[in-house]
Amino acid sequence: VQLVESGGGFVQPGGSLRLSCRASGFAFSGYDMKWYRQAPGKERELVATISSGGTWTNYQDSVKGRFTASRDNAKNTVYLQMNSLKSEDTAVYYCAARLSPERFYWGQGTQVAVSS
Question: What percent of the chain is modeled with pLDDT above 70?
């Protein structure tokens, strides 16, 4: 199983970024996918979940209305569109997949920095 994030970078407050996570090694279309983030000095937190078919999403309250998770099962890729970014969104963002109670996989993370 491999999860590879991309798309992070530096952006000013109010800007946008689109993160991507390319998955391989498992039947991607059969599993919900999650986005987490970890800010400096803080615990990793769940940001968004998207169902296997992409028809259901759930978001942390602090990003509702600003972030949108989507997926392309034909490309084995999940996305996180982040708009109206704030300084408090600065973190390393990870995609993750739980394939069973014992099998939880993380990507390597991509850094997002929001600053003026």
Answer: 100
With H, G, I as helix, E, B as strand and everything else as coil, classify residue 66.
coil
Q: Could you tell me the two tokens for 19? A: 């993160």
pLDDT of residue 53: 96
Average pLDDT estimate for 63-85: 98
Q: So what's the pLDDT on residue 4?
A: 98
Q: How far apart are CA 1 and CA 85, in angstroms?
A: 31
Residue 59: CB atoms within 10 Å:
18
Nearest Cα residue to 5 out of 41, 40, 42, 47: 47
What's the Cα-to-Cα distance from 98 to each of 28, 76, 104, rounded to whole Å?
A: 11, 15, 4
- Percent helix, strand, coil in the chain (nearest 5)? 10, 55, 40
Residue 101 CA to residue 22 CA, distance in Å, equals: 22
Residue in the block written with tokens 């569109």: 81
Distance separating alpha carbons of residues 38 and 89, to the nearest angstrom: 9
